[in-house]
Amino acid sequence: MRISAEEMLNLRGVRPTPQRVVITEYLLNTECHPTAEQVLDAVANALPVPLSKATVYNTLNTLVESGVIQEVYTEPGGCARYDANVTRHHHFVDTRNGRIYDIPFEAIPTLEKSLEGKFKINNYTVTFYGERVDDA
Ligand SMILES: [Zn+2]
User: Fold this and answer.
1) How far is the CA of 46 from the centre of ligand 1 (A)?
2) Pairing state between β 70-72 and 81-83
């Protein structure tokens, strides 16, 4: 069984306010890597009092800082997208419809070796662009 949003927040030492629970819950249940605007659209009316844009942005920042979710950038200069999958992984962007898929980190052989001695790499992710062909 999957961990609840509230448990996830407690685990990361974040007080589970209703706003944080609603946004975390939404991100745990979607694989679409939404932008802040898309998160706002999805959760705006989830609570008795409508969520403001500022609240959604602030909440997303708090969740990123505490490691509950991570920011993902799939286009240079593009806006941040939010991902509840905080394990190390890569992404595949379907250029026909913009859908973003998680690619397991192990799917790509480690790349550090080829740059050894020139750069010290602390982290990296790879984004693939193409078309999904298995019709899933
Ligand atoms: Zn992802």
Assistant:
1) 24
2) antiparallel
User: Residue-wise pLDDT tens for the chain (136 aa)?
Assistant: 678 999 999 999 999 999 999 999 999 999 889 999 999 999 998 999 899 999 999 999 999 999 999 999 988 888 999 999 999 999 999 999 889 999 999 888 877 777 878 888 888 888 999 999 997 6
Its sign, for the CA torsion 18, 71, 126, 117, is: negative
The verdict on domain 5-82 having CATH code 3.30.70.260 is: no
Instruction: List the one residue out of 136, 134, 127, 133 whose CA is nearest residue 93.
Output: 127
Q: What residues pack around ion ligand 1 (CB closer than 5 A)?
A: 83, 85, 102
CA of 49 to the centre of ligand 1 (A): 30
CATH architecture of 87-130: 2-Layer Sandwich (3.30)
Q: Which residue has tokens 């605007």?
A: 37
What is the whole-number distance in angstroms between the Cα of residue 71 and the centre of ligand 1? 9
Q: What is the pTM of this model?
A: 0.85
| Gap from CA of 102 to ligand 1 centroid (Å) | 5
